[in-house]
Amino acid sequence: RIIFFKKTLKESSSIESKEYHLQENVTLNNGVSMPLLGLGTWNLEGDVCVNAVQSALKCGYKRISTAGNYRNEADIGKAILLSDVNRKDIFLSTMIEAEDFGEKAHKKLSNQLSDLKTDYLDLYMIHGPGATKELRKQTWEILEDYYNKGVIKALGVSNYDSYYLRELMEYAKVKPALVQNKFDVYHHAAQLKYCL
Q: Which residue of the set 61, 70, 124, 160 is catalytic?
């Protein structure tokens, strides 16, 4: 169980809390159920990554998140195979980077599936816009095709501000099920207003 605390804006002296449990899920816009909490694997590699993923699964985590540029997908695949948890009980997500946009997306996704030792992904995200509009559009259309074939259960984007979200909405037939962005003092929530 994890408890998050936040001060309310209206009364700086009051504190709200919300409890989240590992078993809590949210339903995405396409009906896919995603665990609210999971293990992010940035900066984990080799045996450290394998052990962390195995421990998380043993403790009840069902969501494992990675990205192509984390360079640990093979370690995660190994950990899942070594665990006692059935793949269908794990929500597995990864991302594609701009260097693999366009036609290269086919090979990248194939390699990621192979490394993760799975034939489908629960969530596949674009890790940032970092390319031309033409390449972003082509990549999204390729991913939509894999989504329609059932290889990808949900599509999303990461690090997209409101400009890129509006652009995506111009051509996306499959709307993103998840928008993952960094929020802190230096990265304010302008894109959140767009999403709402």
A: 70
